[in-house]
Amino acid sequence: RLHLNIRTESAARWITSESWEACGNRELVIGDFAGQKCWMGLDLASNSDFTGAVFAFSELGAVYVFPYFWVPKQAALKRERKSRIPYTVWERQGHLIFTAGNETDYDAVRRDLNTIVRQHKLNVVEIAADRLFQGMDICRRLDEDDGFEVIEHGQGFVSMAMPTKETERMILGQRLGHPDHPVLNWMVANTTVQEDAAGNRKPDKKRSSEKIDGVVAMIMGVGRAVTNAGPPTSVYATRGLRML
Length: 244
Known about the structure:
- This protein is about 35% helix and about 20% strand.
- It is built from eight helices and eleven strands.
- Strands 3, 4, 5, 6, 7, 8 and 9 form a seven-stranded mixed beta sheet that branches.
């Protein structure tokens, strides 16, 4: 788990680096999907953790994901000193958003989500979130005040097994495109899954080597997109072929 005092990839990886990297494409930009239906997975932080939002677009049998991350600045700086994780580099490069203080600023996350949707003209069908705990207020405000359809998405095997299986299938088949986002890359490398007696699997936050909030959000978003996108339709009339 440690090499030269730096945390390495989980001992029991969910997805290999080779499989994940094969799906990466830095030329993918969320703005190219303006107006297309998308589904968001939202994994909300408890106190000082990451909050991750992943937008998932289903198109001609493929899914394209775009992640966003927030973390309280003081908590990030403390963990960077302790664990040597490059929070400040990611923030400076625009891959991570610092919120003020040492606890999650849900108001800032909500404002940013609304800005992202407006800026890129996103057609968000629904937001899947675990709204029963720390996220109750932000989920209510996103739903009632901002007009999003927020659905409750549990974190147990009943809710997560199918989305985890579908996401894994899309990755292994190179039908999931991602923009090679360094924070999401790191989280995928951290991810270990838990399996029940029936062979159902889901991400295991407790046993993963480090943070995996973006993976949980991605799985929720991809699961909703695959389930609800409907039959594929041609988009070639408005743009050219998109490559994974």
